[in-house]
Amino acid sequence: MKALVFGGPGQRSWDTVDDPGIQDPTDVIVKVDTTTICGTDLHILKGDVPAVTEGRILGHEAVGTIVETGAAVSGLKKGDHVLVPAITSCGRCGPCKVGMAAHCEAVGGIGWIFGHLINGVQAEYARVPYAETSVHVVPEGVSDEQVLFLADILPTGYEIGVQNGGVKPGDTIAVVGAGPVGLAAMMTAQIAGAGRIIAVDMAPSRLKHAENFGATHTVLGGENAEQEILEIAPGGVDVAMEAVGVPGTFDLCTRIVRAGGTVANIGVHGAPTTLHLEELWIKNITITTGLVSGSTIPTLLKLARDGRMEAEKLGTHRFALGEMEQAYDVFGAAGEHDALKVVIQA
Length: 346
Ligand SMILES: NC(=O)c1ccc[n+]([C@@H]2O[C@H](COP(=O)([O-])OP(=O)(O)OC[C@H]3O[C@@H](n4cnc5c(N)ncnc54)[C@H](O)[C@@H]3O)[C@@H](O)[C@H]2O)c1
Ligand SMILES: [Zn+2]
Ligand SMILES: [Zn+2]
Description:
Strand content: 15-25%
Helix content: 25-40%
Distance between the termini: 12 Å
Largest sheet: 7 strands, mixed
Order of helices and strands: EEEHEEHEHEHHEHEHEHEHEHEHEHHE
Bound molecules: nicotinamide-adenine-dinucleotide, zinc ion
């Protein structure tokens, strides 16, 4: 089969590789129908994720059709159309039982294994471990594009931004970073009933997209951002979400949150940040962090099915599976192409 293979930092190729086979009785094999690329894949290609070794097939978001089931799989069958989420869940360990598959103990203490610790889904076929407790059957009448982004960024925005942030009806929130993840947070904050949604980004094009994902106010990042946000939300916002992953934006979130509010960090950080406890200790704030678990995917699937959430709006560019390299070129230069997410279909 063909697959996108990591060849070490800076190296990727659409190669011919062996077809995957069932290894464990809880596995299924899916034919990948639709997949996409994540910012994390770009981090891997830069060499930022050393656990990913040469020869690994990348990708951790897909919709596919089951073509083979392991001996222990009884709840799924050949022909089932399923969403394969970024996070694998054994369903049995302590973290899985409390809905925190992000830290599933069966698969190395981390639920993110596709395109990381095992071969991923940017391929014609993929082996899916712990299939029954990990994949979700796509509801009748719902397209691949409507559910593809529920594999990773929608539950990330919802669980790590909205739920961790404790967004309540009428809340004023700020989302710093209006990339796909920040936009997913805005989209799901709207569903949670947020009143004012302030989008903050350095790129005017991203702020323009934000208006289409529920932002009621937009603020250009930079020196004046704090003041502008506080003019919209005197006293501070109820919830400040960080969706960039750099010290400056985390710091901004701690300065714009109201007393008693929450800073929900979503961004993946590569450098330490100074936490100004000398100013924050008196503010009664909560700071949350986390890796997505995907526990809200069933809820999000119902919202997609019922037309309450148009996740497909995140897909701005389309490619055939054989055009994987071009899809990477476009997604890797998202600013140049005004791209959010790419949709890659077999
Ligand atoms: N916690 C999790 O489970 C999880 C899951 C997926 C992604 N993430 C992380 O979420 C973050 C966002 O992901 P993404 O795919 O949307 O990334 P992205 O790079 O597409 O978007 C980031 C946005 O931040 C903006 N930005 C950069 N510097 C800024 C600044 N100083 N002020 C305001 N805006 C600024 C950029 O213009 C861009 O629009 C990343 O750090 C990613 O690794 C976390
Ligand atoms: Zn991802
Ligand atoms: Zn588990």
